[in-house]
## 1
Amino acid sequence: MSSGSGNKTGVLGGFKAFLMRGNVIDLAVAVVIGAAFTNIVNSVVKGVINPVVGAFGTKDLEHYASCLKGPCSRNSATGEVTKGVYIQWGSVLSASLTFLITAAVVYFLMLLPMKRWQDRQAARTPAETKPDEPTEIELLAQIRDTLIEQRRGPGSGSDSVPAQR
């Protein structure tokens, strides 16, 4: 019975550790901000984009549809299809415009400025944080020295200087 209780504590402890990681909290904040941002984008589409499109036709993109199988008719008050099969391409167009606007705002107002800021920060930090790698000549000298030590063997002293050719 104690092993089952310990396993449950381990599972709950693991779940708690998962929830307390920074990635999960950042993701939760991003979802909340994204939901609020969706309302702004929908308002822009309904208040700005739809009237511009409405200058060429109807103001509400949801009403753009084509009759696939007729005869087609709609209820004029609610806009619901009462007879026939409609392809409602206006709702797809509206969703596509919403997506494009959202992507453009996220890129130009969030990602691009963040990338520029990160590039400026990277330019300010010194580039010498990474140790220099040894040159080819230094590596060859190290290999030579190792081979000489191996040739001498463990009993010989390291004080003697090897003969050079």
Note: The chain has a mean pLDDT of 77.
## 2
Amino acid sequence: MHSDTPALPEPGPARGAVAIISNRRGELLLHLRDDLPAIAWPAHWSLLGGGCDPGESPATAIVRELEEEAGLTGLHLIERGEITDHHGSGQIITFYSTRWDGDERTLPLSEGVKLQFFAPEHLDILTIPPFIRAGINRYPAARQS
């Protein structure tokens, strides 16, 4: 029997997006994640961002996540590339970069414990997911955005 109904496309791998946000001093804005067993990378320092909603592009997701998590809007985001989180969620993560020179202590943090700018030379002592560390190291030009 022949069906005229087209097959639905197979769902692809889960996707997400994060932003490397630097300031004029070259520091990077990191987000201390909650220490909850149900989330990926609990109690780790990471970049702001998150997973794509169904049908949402990484470019749309990063704009939504920055606004939801920290009230950041109107940023000029530059796409840098992708890295897969092989040791955590398995998501393909698109990295973006931007510059923001505000005071992170004034941001309305809706998820996680805190936001803090760090000089690149201090990142080695922080607990950072491997794919996030790889993205920061792979896209150093992003820090000068």
Note: The chain is about 15% helix and 25% strand.
## 3
Amino acid sequence: MFDDADGVDDVDGVDGVTRPLRTSGPTGLAGRIRRAAGRRTVASFLVLPLLGALTLVLGPTGHASAQAASACSGRLVKTVTFSTGSLRVYKSRAYACAVAVAKKPGARRAMRVSLQPRGGRAVVDSGSFTKLAGPVTVHALNRCVRATGSVGGSSGSTGWILC
């Protein structure tokens, strides 16, 4: 409101008095700028690695072929191809991993992958999938493993490997 006596406008408890802007100290403008810059730095340390990890997990944008798909870490040690797909076995330091990959991804069909360490039980992933079954992983430090995979009605097996 406008006060007729002294000509000062009073709006929402602000008395119209101009005060100097504090530029130093923790609550002044410089302190607020430092805190905002610190938050941006912390945010960049948190957000940028998360975006990088997300890019690694999701991969490049666009349609990737099933041949380029790998859900296992480690190096590829054996590939067994059959008419409707392939069985891929990977080895990392102490683990073996296997996936069954369809040659032509698309419609759902029966797929199965199995990986068994010598002296242990087989780990199986089976069901109706579009491009791959698995990954299945077993502890294989100093152990032989065997893998089997099937896509549709066709299958392949490795026999005992990594001995």
Note: Helices lie at 29-58.
